[in-house]
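Allow me, if you will, to draw on your knowledge of protein folds for a short while. I have a record of one protein: its chain in single-letter code and its fold written as discrete structure tokens. I remain grateful for any guidance, and I place the record below:
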Amino acid sequence: MNSSKKIISQILLYTAVIAIVAFCLFPFLQMVSVSVKDIHDRANPSLIPKEIHLDAYKEILGFAEVDEAQSASIQNILKNPNLIDAQRDAILKKYENKNPFPFPRFMLNSFIFATVSTFISMTCAIFAAYAMARMEFRGMSIMRRGTLFVYLLGGVILMVPLYQMGAKLGLINNKVGVFIFMMLIYVMQTIPLALYMLGNYFRDIPYSIEEAAMIDGCTKLQTITKIIIPLSKPILVTVFVYCFIIGWNEYLYASVFLKPFGEMRTLSIAINELFFSKNDIWDRIMAASTLTLAPVLVFFFTFSKNMVAGMSDGGVKG
């Protein structure tokens, strides 16, 4: 009787897990499916396309130039008898630009912003987290608890004061200034998480390892670089991935400070340009969304094995 109940409970558990996973994966599968369908197959609700077409990816990445004015969808619009000559000329003019959506440049911008801010955050967080984990100083408890206070405030609340600060400092009127200001904002968003995760990990590293290093003549800086950092590779990889994802997906501040500088736009805001360019076709939109998601998945699956804490276990011989 107990075994039958156990089997039923396991079946229900696995069914619930499969249902939740399928529910979460369906939007992503649908996104990929539409991105490889042709114009005649997009209305098909099936996730399996009748024939795989990579034209959308080639055009988005700049490997192929597709004259959308000659495509079937645009031709259908131009054949509308209700269109006047002015409207028809406006439609044709809209598609004269052969590269209205420089996706590789936007992806490079996102990568630069996310990577640079992540390295700055991690560099500062390593030393700050070590100080809070190993040293005693006045106000340490307040600082330790206050690192996460920034997450209690929504980004919209901070937008106005940050904009005023940037305007008064003259950092939002030129490319160099806005880049520096955005780096400060991204670091402000990521360093509390890095401090929290690294501080908790550093406190679990046996202090006897550091004492042995100091007996051998290592300074504090050498102890951090030669002992703490090598022992903390798993958590460093984890923090890097999380901070990178925050910077990669950031939208609110980028939409305000980077919008005036078109060539500096990141993917999170530039993706909206698809709706106002010659690429405003569903397969192009889904292809761009898939490519935007791809780096995050690559980072996650590449470093998933390293995203495990506890590398210092057994570091001290009994």
About this structure: The radius of gyration is 26 Å. Residues 103-306 form a domain with the MetI-like fold fold (CATH 1.10.3720.10).
